[in-house]
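Input record (one chain):
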Amino acid sequence: MPSFARLMRNLAILASLSLFALPALAQDDDNLLPVTQAFHLTSDASQPGMVKLHWRIAPDYYLYRGRIKIKAVDAAAVKLGEPTLPDGLKKHDEYLGDVEIYHGDIEATVPYTLADAATKVLALDVQYQGCHEVEPKICYPPNTEHLKLTIGAPSTIPAGDAPAAPAAKGNGAALLGAPAATPGTDAQALPANQAFRFEALAKDGRSLLLRWTMPKDYYLYRDKTEIKVLSPAGVSAGEPDWPSGIAHHDEHFGDTIVYFDQVEVPVPLNGADPSKKVELDVAYQGCLENGICYPVMTRHLSADLASGAVTVGDAASVASPAPVAPAAAPGEVAPTPPPANLMPGGAEKVGFIAAIGLALLGGLILNLMPCVLPVLSLKAITVLESGESPAAARRHALWYTAGVMLSFALLGLIVVGIRAAGHGLQWGAQFQQPAIVGVLVYVMLAIGLSMSGVFEVGGSLGNVGSGLASRSGPTGDFFTGVLAVVVASPCTAPFMGSAIAFAFAAPLYVAFLIFVALGLGLALPFLLMGFVPAVARMLPRPGRWMETLKQALAFPMYLTAVWLLWVLTKQRGADAAALVLGGGVLLAMALWWYGRSRGSRLSWVLTAVLGIGAVAALWTVHGLPAPTTTQTASDGSVPYSPEKLAELRAAGTPVLVDMTADWCITCKANERAVLDTDAFRDLLKRTGTVYMKGDWTDVNTTIAAFLEQWHSVGVPLYVVYPKGGGEGHKLSTVLTQDTVKQALDTASGQ
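The corresponding structure, as predicted from the sequence alone:
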């Protein structure tokens, strides 16, 4: 019977796959069904006085019960009774609140009375609305079908389980009714140049006035507008002076600001000579409310500052609009975007060589982060044991490095690829998934039990590895490297943020090299142990004491499992913690039983049953809702919201925004060292600064929008807004008392 190491290796594979279980790339809109095929409507008017309406809803789509409306075209000729609809599945919709939805087939019956008994044709307008519930997650505009039913005619409702209508290929936006609307839909989207009429004027030789005019129900995004001066050299566009707009949230761009009707925006031209011409491009984007979003549109401007004449070139070719979720209720103006001189990640621009160096240094420092220390302890045991053989030490180091670098490269390319496809995703976001956190609890528990001697996975400590080894050393070393990346992924070490930010904005091959450098930095200490004899000689000689050390190092594994369990409690409450604890007991029992029985058929059956129970606990956790109770902050902070931040800034109050998460080790270290101290609270009082905190432990689109606005690769993110307005300033990832004091003193004018 093969060693139980094989089972542990499979557990490692499950953990590593969980790490990479990031949201899939959205499918192309061309695969969306036309609205009338997604929600295929048929009717039955064969029985006088009663109409039956039947919807066959395609897989992965749902229909809102409350959005079904039926009315007679001629209310004087036909009086409709109250429709009878089946009960739907209750859910909470982000835009519509508590709703009922339908999947599969549903049928409504509508009684009616005719004013003239001789009437043979019944004319009805049937309006409905539904959504696509997998990527791309969009809601169709309300669709109205005009039915003319012959009373007494045979039913058109299909009998049995007829197949759903096939997906139509072609323009994705046209399937949603725009710009060439699908028959029966209400959305008749205008061409881009009519929906967003653009003009520009030269004001005083050193600035321009940009003006957009939109028809009713169209709006322009503020944060999707970019101005780029092409010539002459030395001239740049200053910060646009946007007026107060309307706070808006949508599924694509999060919380942002939009403008309806008309908006005028003065733009200073820094370094401009009033006697010369300026060439620039203006890119912008907007949407039809409750309808479709247009792709980015670009206008080329040629401004003669001396005469004041501005020539506006034709817009760039406009592709098919993309769908957008219904708009939320308007609110107050949101915070201003970050300074234009920031690259993605919120750091100053760096070059390729500098980014590689920062990645290498960040990966090296990552070895010192608390989240990585348990794995480092395991690897130290392996290196110590192989100290008698230089060849064995080199082999351990190379396989461990391969696991680290390959995992980092794969994880980085997945994240960068998703972001390049236009989907917001930040570093460490996989820890927002309770199932992944639960899997890691199991992995850490299994490693600790192995090191404590509850079960054996091999004949030597080298085979113990990270609890993921097989009888062959390289496999254990490789998966120890994979595990190191798993537990390191929520951490952001100094210098690491700028490197990842550069990777997110760079081509894929550049991103690959940066993540490889990051992995090389993480693996560097063990490469030195394996290939530099002087470093290896500094290690103590192997001996019986190593068994005691191995058992002692099991306790950091248990502590890591406790930390992860605490994170899970924050995400899904005490029920989730109880389920995972119960599953952990089943896992421990399975490993204990296997260690005693040594591979008999009965032991495999019992181990499998107990393992299935542990997996079932995780599956249950995955379906638990997030807790709804709110806790009062004990650190004097106020919860982050765009509206509250805008209110404070409008009042001239300095603000420190802290975006954090319970699974972020760097965040917790900063809180312990700086943000949760009496000195910091005294500093807030002295400077009059409001401390605003956003908790990104669980998925939160509002906080994700703020991270995107600041082009941040993840948490922590610290932004200081100065007294009396002005641009925000991003602080370092790792805080000190002095840096925070200096930032708040400057922001408050002290």
